Amino acid sequence: MASMNAPPRLLMAALLATVALVAGPGIAQVPPAAPLTAEAAAVKKLLEQKLPGANVRSVVKTQYFGLFEVQLEDRIMYTDAKARYMVVGSIYDADTKKNLTEARQRELNRVAFDSLPLNLSFTRVKGNGERKLAIFSDADCPYCARLEEELKSIDNVTIYTFLFPIDQLHPDAARKSRTIWCSPDKAKAWDEFFASGALPDNKGDCDNPVVATNALGTKLKISATPTLVFADGSVIPGALPAVQLESELSQAATMVAKTNTAKK
User: Fold this and answer.
1) pTM for this one?
2) I want to staple 165 with a disulfide (CB 3.0 to 4.6 A). Which of 25, 110, 159, 173 is the partner?
3) CB of 248 within 8 A of CB of 150?
């Protein structure tokens, strides 16, 4: 727990650093918050007084320990009714073995898949391509290479790849991304690069979306590669193993089908 008696700026920095460490990198754009109850509004006001400049997006009373769920920036933490203590970390249901914080964060972090500017990506279709997956990927990211290996065993999916070089980590990735994009067959060039390290024979000076995809990633608070966006809007960072990829794709397809049926 973090005491609210520390200087506000130091406390704010410490809280955000701790949440980033516990919850991982920022991922997605947060949807508008629901209207606050009077009790939650009072907690929000206290937090804003004690943490000047903090972006408290929402406050919701939970069913456990009398705590309030606080969405600070794009993270979840918990506080008491007097906003004196902050709890950073996950809450688990011991009966169901479910990580309640992770499930809630995932729900809050959903994005509208149909709102993604797919023209900024290149497409690979496997099998019938009926399932959908968007990936923000860095050509020089070792975890992206691992993900590409896992994807080899996945079928019946359309993959939209957004070139998202992280210059601070991989200073040559942007050049490689532009070269791959400028290939007549972007998907083939991408696959060949991860298979052998070979790049297309061009200068990478064609019209390309690298600057735009970096801006998109920033807007969606994506700061890690690979980051995956499934058809139901779920956003998950990391090189997921094939078994989990298959599960997430099937779950997303089922949710999308239910949503489409409900709209009819």
Assistant:
1) 0.73
2) 173
3) no
